[in-house]
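Module 6 notes. Inverse folding takes a fixed backbone as the condition and produces residue identities as the prediction. Think of it as a translation problem where the source language is geometry and the target language is the twenty amino acids. Below is one complete input and output pair. Work through it position by position during the lab.
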C-alpha cells in the first residue's frame, strides 16, 4: 500500500492556521494558540485529509468517464 502524505505549502499552512484560530474565536468563543491551531491542522490533514482527497479522485474519475462516454457518442456511423 502506498503511504500518502498531504503536504501543504508554508503560505497555505499559515492561512489555514489563521482560519482555525478564527473559527475557534467566532464559533466557540475560545482563543486557540498558533501551536494549538497547527496541531489541529496536522490532525485534520493526517486523519481527515485522505478521505477528502480520495473523494476528489473518485469525483474526477466519474467526471472523466462521463466525458469519455460523450466522446464515444460522437463516433460516425460507418457505411
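Target side of the pair, the amino acids:
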Amino acid at each position: 500500500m502506498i503511504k500518502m502524505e498531504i503536504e501543504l505549502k508554508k503560505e497555505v499552512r499559515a492561512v489555514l492556521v489563521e482560519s482555525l484560530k478564527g473559527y475557534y474565536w467566532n464559533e466557540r468563543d475560545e482563543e486557540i494558540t498558533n501551536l494549538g491551531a497547527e496541531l489541529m491542522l496536522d490532525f485534520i490533514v493526517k486523519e481527515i485529509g485522505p478521505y477528502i482527497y480520495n473523494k476528489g479522485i473518485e469525483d474526477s474519475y466519474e467526471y472523466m468517464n462521463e466525458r469519455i462516454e460523450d466522446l464515444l457518442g460522437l463516433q460516425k456511423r460507418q457505411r
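Reference fact for the lab report: The radius of gyration is 21 Å.
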